[in-house]
Specification:
The complex is a heterodimer of chains A (490) and B (148). Chain A has 490 residues and is mostly helical. Chain A has a domain of 145 residues. Chain A is 63% helix and 3% strand. In chain A, the strands form two sheets. Chain A has a two-stranded antiparallel ribbon with strand order 1-2. Chain A has a two-stranded antiparallel ribbon with strand order 3-4. The relative contact order of chain A is 0.14. In chain B, 26% of the residues lie in helices and 29% in strands. The longest helix of chain B is centred in the N-terminal third of the chain and has 30 residues. Classes of the chains: A mainly alpha (490), B alpha+beta (148). At the A-B interface, α1, α2, α4 and α15 of A face α1, β4, β5 and β6 of B. Chain B: InterPro entries: Cell_Proc_Reg/RNA_Proc, FHA_dom, SMAD_FHA_dom_sf.
């Protein structure tokens, strides 16, 4: 990044650095991370043992090997962090390891419950836990690759517009492609089928668009802080500055209409709003954005039957229990949570086969049943610690792009959890969206591991001791001269 | 069976508490704030605290308000350049705007030929000036000060 430095220049930086107090070497805290990772792996192994015990399957040493293999997998990720981002935050990776591990155990547990089930169309249940293990492996590889090939998060800012375009295309592609490439699954048209694989480009688009918005807002930040007219104690932005907000709103509505994917559109719009708010610190944007979203949602509710269905299911799921596309799913999830109660049924002792879409959208309901309120609250706290550390890195990092991107990424995970958990607990209308790291799904897992790598990269930049100040070629040793520079730079 | 169920929940909460503990001690390391309330934390700094040496730089106004940089004796570069210690996003700041450097036990601010100037309290900085604790330094729309 720095320009070549003429040698032999008496750098004031170096001379000042010599007479300083040493001993302020920032700890990397990688040891702490390893200990926490072992703790997480131990918990996951214990969870697996409990599931096997409660399902009355024979216990063998195999489980311990599985646990060790899991620890090994994350030890590799740990080594990658040690090598390429030594000052990264120590709490983020263990949280991810625990969430992903518990997700794997629960997916395995649902496999056991559904084993041998024959569906109405004659197909049998296909175990998916092993596939998810493979996805985890690939996810960690991507994670390590991101850390290796992205030594500085500011590199991303240079490709902001490219990322934005790619992200936009990826987000909207499944909505406009014909059905044989982009099939409609469970009412949503968000998948792309490439050979045997189904991918959800929207998951990756989320990150790409966040990079774009962060880069865009950093370069155009001043535009958004120009005061328009004051109204109710708020500085409203000028009408012409509203462009990006309208663009985001348009994309959100397009996603809602073309792909019938309420969750993604809510997530996407929320991220844009939060980035705008972080960049400008002005509540007016949030109020305006929420107003626009509310307006759009009401119009969508008037026009589209699938939105009306969701809202009706949310208002009274039990009354619509028997209606096709009715409140069955939410009712079952509420029953499961009620069965779990305070302490839960115990891992492996619940009845996840009663919950529809148990290993994707409703996986948190399964966890709520088996771990109860106490365990579920702990799980949400793990998410909270994760987001907290992400935001902490964003606050501490010194460049605005890093601040915006880190804040956006951490918020995205938080908001996604809110949408999922709000949906299954009937706080907000249910929207099909995956729980980060828990749900079965390759695209979601891979995208989230890239997100974690970016957060670690930003936190590493924030915590790393600043490099010895670079000598400045155009200002030779001004500290040593008792003259005054009055020359103006071009 | 009941015991294992409760045991797992206890362990899960222990994990959360352990993670929060990591976060707690890390808060101070990341921000350059000293943990004054924590006994036994970084004793080496305690001794340095007696002298009224500035320990951190705090941004009090502008887009970066709240940013803290701990002072470890190395000079602090302020400007719009990417490699500055404090990177300003401010139309009124120059690429390399000002520098804070330490000589002896005092910190000095000098202007690096900026377009709009650097102000120590109300005075324009034309030659390196000693920065007392808590005196505002204004650079464009950003105001910083040294704190102990």
């Amino acid at each position: 990044m720095g320009s070549p430095v003429p040698s032999g220049e008496g750098s004031p930086g170096a001379s000042a650095a010599t007479n300083t107090s040493p001993g302020l070497k920032a700890p990397t805290r990688r040891g702490t991370e390893l200990v926490m990772l072992s703790f997480a792996a131990g918990l996951v192994t214990l969870a697996l043992i409990l599931v096997e015990l409660n399902q009355e399957r024979s216990l063998s040493l195999r489980i311990l090997y599985l646990g060790l293999a899991y620890l090994g997998l994350f030890a590799c990720a740990h080594l990658a962090v040690r090598r390429w981002a030594p000052y990264a935050d120590p709490a983020i990776l263990p949280c991810v390891a625990l969430l992903n591990g518990l997700g794997l155990v629960v997916i395995h547990r649902i496999d056991l419950a559904l084993e041998g089930t024959v569906f109405p169309d004659g197909s049998t249940w296909d175990p998916v836990a092993f596939k998810q293990v493979i996805w985890t492996g690939i996810g960690l590889l991507l994670f390590a690759a991101t850390l290796k090939f992205l030594p500085d998060h500011r590199m991303l800012a240079r490709f902001g517009y490219t990322f934005g375009l790619v992200g936009l295309v990826a987000l909207l592609l499944p909505g406009v492609l014909p059905g044989f490439i982009a099939p409609t699954i469970n009412g949503a048209k968000i998948w792309l089928r490439v050979g045997p694989l189904s991918i959800q480009p929207g998951e990756f688009a989320k990150i790409l668009l966040m990079v774009f918005f962060a880069a865009f807002l950093v370069s155009k930040r001043d535009l958004f802080t120009v005061a328009g007219r004051r109204f109710l104690g708020m500085d409203l932005p000028r009408a012409r500055d509203l462009g990006p907000l309208f663009a985001a709103w348009g994309v959100t509505v397009a996603v809602m209409v073309l792909q019938k994917d309420l969750g993604s559109s809510l997530l996407f719009f929320g991220i844009v709003l939060v980035l705008l708010y972080i960049a400008t610190e002005r509540a007016a944007w949030v109020v305006l954005g929420l107003g626009m979203f509310a307006g759009g949602a009401v119009v969508a509710w008037k026009l589209f039957t699938h939105v009306q269905q969701r809202v009706a299911n949310w208002q009274d799921p039990i009354a619509r229990y028997d209606v096709v596309g009715g409140g069955y799913q939410i009712s079952q999830s509420l029953f499961a949570l009620a069965t779990g109660g305070i302490g839960g049924a115990g891992l492996g002792a619940g009845r996840p086969e009663m919950i529809p879409e148990a290993n994707t959208d409703f996986i948190t309901a399964v966890i709520g049943e088996e771990l109860g309120f106490v365990g579920f609250a702990a799980l949400l706290l793990v998410y909270m610690v994760f987001a907290l550390r992400g935001l902490r890195g964003a606050i501490a990092v010194r460049d605005s792009f890093g601040k915006l991107l880190g804040g956006g990424l951490a918020f995205a995970v938080c908001f996604q959890v809110f949408i999922v958990v709000g949906g299954i607990t009937k706080l907000i209308p249910m929207t099909g969206i995956t729980a980060p790291f828990l749900s079965y799904g390759g695209s979601s897992l891979l995208a989230n591991y890239i997100l974690v790598a970016l957060l670690l990269r930003i936190s590493a930049a924030a915590r790393a001791p600043q490099r010895i100040a670079k000598p400045k070629p155009q200002q030779p040793a001004i500290a040593d001269q008792h003259t005054v520079m009055v020359e103006r730079p071009k | 069976m009941q015991l294992t169920r409760a045991g797992f929940l206890v362990l899960l909460w222990l994990f959360v508490l352990a993670a929060l503990r990591v976060v707690r001690s890390d808060l101070y390391a990341a921000s350059g704030l000293r943990a004054s309330g924590l006994p036994g934390f970084r004793r080496s700094e305690k001794s340095a605290r007696g002298s009224k040496a500035p320990r951190q730089l705090v941004v009090t106004h502008g887009a970066l308000t709240g940013t803290r940089i701990s002072l470890d004796g190395r000079p602090i570069l302020i400007g719009r350049a990417d490699d500055s210690t404090l990177v300003l996003d401010d139309d009124f700041a120059s690429t390399r705007h000002a520098r804070l450097s330490m000589r002896g036990t005092d910190w000095y601010v000098e202007d690096l030929g900026s377009t709009n100037g650097t102000y120590l309290d109300r005075a324009k900085v034309t030659a390196p000036l000693r920065v007392p604790l808590g005196t505002p330094i204004r650079i464009g729309k950003t105001v910083i000060e040294l704190r102990s």
